[in-house]
Each structure stands twice: as C-alpha cells, then as structure tokens.
Amino acid sequence: MWPARNYPGQGLIKRFCQSILTNVQPEKSEDQMTLNEFIEDAFNVEQEYLMDALGDLTPEEMMWRAGPEANSLGWILWHMTRVEDMWFQFFIQRETEIWARDGWDEKFGLPARDNGFGHTLEQVAEFPAYDLAEMLKYGTEVRTATLKYLKTVTAEQMDVVPREARPEMSIGRIFRQVVGEMYQHQGHIAYLKGLIRAGK
Fold first, then answer.
1. pLDDT above 90 covers what percent of the chain?
2. All domains of the chain, ordered by start, with CATH?
3. Rounded CA gap, 47 and 84, in Å?
4. What is the DSSP code (8-state) at residue 19?
5. Cβ atoms of 78 and 184 closer than 8 Å
6. What are the pLDDT digits (tens) for 146-183?
7. What is the pLDDT at residue 199?
8. What is the mean pLDDT of the segment spanning 68-79?
9. What is the pLDDT of residue 32?
10. How crowded is residue 136: how many other Cβ atoms within 10 Å of its Cβ?
11. d(Cα 60, Cα 68) in Å, to the nearest integer?
C-alpha cells in the first residue's frame, strides 16, 4: 500500500552518508558500539515505541480506518510483522516463515504466504479483526528470531546477496530497510491512534 518513492535530494543524502562511512574510520575503543549492536538497539527502541502506541487500544480502534483507501491499525501491525518474518526467515535464511511454521496462519485464519504486499482496497477493507495479544505473541517470536540471526551475521556477510534474483538486496540493505519500515509503520500506528482519540 506504500510504494517506494524518490524524494528530492535523496541521492545526494545517500552519497553523503556513504562518503562518511567510507572515509571516516575512527579508532575503535572497547566501549564503541558495533554495527550489529546499533541495529539491535534500533529494533529494541522501535519495539518500545510500538508497545507504547498499542498499549491501550481497543478492538474497535485496531480496525478503525481514516478513509476508504486507508489501512487499519490492525492491518498495519500484521503487515509489518509479516514482512519482518518474510525477509529474515524466508528470503535470507530460506527457512519456513514462523507464521506458517508455528501455525499462526491457522490461528488467525489467514493465508500462509500472505504479508500484505499488493493488497487491493477490497482486501484491506475485508481484513478481519483479531486478538491483539495473540498478534503480539507472534511478533515476539519474529523479533526474537530476527535478533538471534543478527548475532550470527559478520561485517563481511552484510554485503552478501542471498537471492540472485534480487541483486540489490544484500543482507545489510535488508536490515536497513526493515528497521526503516518498522519505524515508519510504528509512526503510522501512533498517528492514527492520535486521530482516533482526537475525534472522541
């Protein structure tokens, strides 16, 4: 539902950041954060923000939509969790996604391979309500598996391309994309919650 967009200055910003990472190599100290630690911390902070936004939402609020072309909070949470599962379990490690492996698809009555990519307005509108606590349990399993995998990845492996059909998607880029997407969707949820509460 959110196609990739190019923004003015995006290429310049990317080249600037790459030049910093390439040319600036400060001396390492014992307390210096590693790349893996930075990624893990980014995931953990995002999770704190997400839990704060979801904390007191009602079932009705979870399924609220701002308009006929908008996603519900429930759809967004399901989608962001499914996408993380797909990238790290299936795409990179070629494992069965936790969603299907542990029977979450059957518990929620949703397709085993669906993750929301390419959903039509009709599919979004018909997306069923679910038990938030159960979805968070699934999310906890996914995040635990993601961080467990992260601990095994070396700096050299960040440049590995796990699928020849997607040469632009290295392991490092996938981590970057997923972290960014998690923060984006967490922001969507927090914003929609504000809209709901403002109208009461």
1. 82
2. 35-198 (1.20.120.450)
3. 13
4. H
5. no
6. 999 999 999 999 999 999 999 999 999 999 999 999 99
7. 74
8. 97
9. 87
10. 15
11. 16
- First and final C-alpha spacing in the chain: 27
The secondary structure of 86-154 as a DSSP string is: IIIIIIIT----HHHHTTHHHHHT--SS--STT--HHHHHTPPP--HHHHHHHHHHHHHHHHHHHTT--
pLDDT value of position 18: 58
Q: What is the per-residue pLDDT for 154?
A: 98
CA dihedral over 166, 171, 172, 177, signed as positive or negative: positive
Amino acid identity, position 100: A
- For residue 52, give the H/E element and its range: helix 35-54
pTM of the complete model: 0.84
> Which tokens sit at 158?
């960040």
**Alpha-carbon gap, residue 134 to 3, rounded angstroms:** 29
Selection from 184, 156, 149 nearest residue 170 by Cα: 156
Cβ proximity of 163 and 169 under 8 Å: yes
Mean pLDDT computed over 129-139: 98
Q: Read out DSSP for 164-191?
A: TT-TT--HHHHHHHHHHHHHHHHHHHHH
Q: What is the pLDDT of residue 23?
A: 54
Q: Residues with Cβ < 8 Å from 76, sequence gap 6 or more?
A: 185, 188, 189, 192
- Residues comprising the chain, all counted: 200
Gap between the Cα atoms of 123 and 136, Å rounded: 22
